[in-house]
Specification:
alpha+beta; Ubiquitin-like (UB roll); five-stranded mixed beta sheet; 9 helices
Length: 209
């Protein structure tokens, strides 16, 4: 086929990101929320027994109290992804070095692959799915779409959560403060300029709310 020939199925990159923003920025957010909300504490314990869980963990995830039996070696990232179905949290390096697994614990950004779930006992965890208001993107997520703050999108959830933690503590950062605050999150596609622009744009539109 002549590549110069018009094709109704061809989309610009920006148009694609705009039309699939929830999927890219939220990383299958809606699919992830349903399993997390569906199980009662009793059902969760029964499931944990089936998985050989042995330690009781109580915490709040995206505003929902959770009570689960888990294996002691379970990381917070594994708990979120494998037990609660919140797959927006990505495991990339699995060494606490790249930031793709970043979530908020009691308002602070943490590498969820690098801490045991049991260390979050009694804590309040927020993942990228938790920023959604129904199907509406959070202003910070929307800013990443509008400013092209992603390339492959794999690191994007961690970037967004790190930015969210930054804006919670400093709602109107300077560019240098954003650079410093986001320094623990790697982007292998090198989309850093647009990531910084996304955070600054969100800071001007209530991105920490």
């Amino acid at each position: 086929m002549d590549k110069s020939e018009p094709n109704a199925h061809n989309l610009s990159r920006r148009k694609f990101l705009q039309t699939t923003g929830t999927g890219v920025v939220g990383t299958t957010l809606l699919a992830g929320i349903a399993p997390a909300l569906a199980k009662s504490p009793e059902e969760a314990e029964a499931e944990a027994e089936a998985h050989g869980g042995s330690e009781l963990l109580e915490l709040t995830v995206n505003g929902v109290p959770r009570r689960l039996l888990i294996a002691p070696q379970t990381t917070l990232a594994e708990l979120l992804r494998d037990r609660l179905g919140l797959i927006g949290t990505k495991i990339t390096c699995n060494r606490g070095q790249c930031g793709a697994c970043t979530v908020l614990l009691n308002g602070e950004a943490v590498y969820s692959c690098h801490m045991l779930a049991l260390d979050a006992e009694g804590g309040d965890v927020v993942t990228v799915e938790g920023l959604l208001n129904g199907e509406k993107l959070h202003p910070l997520q929307q800013a990443f779409v509008e400013k092209d703050g992603m390339q492959c999108g794999f690191c994007t959830p961690g970037q967004i959560m790190a930015a969210h933690a930054l804006l919670l503590h400093n709602p109107h950062p300077t560019r240098d403060q954003v650079l410093e605050g986001m320094s623990g999150n790697l982007c292998r596609c090198a989309a850093y300029p647009n990531i910084i622009d996304s955070v600054l744009a969100a800071a001007g539109t209530g991105g920490a709310s």
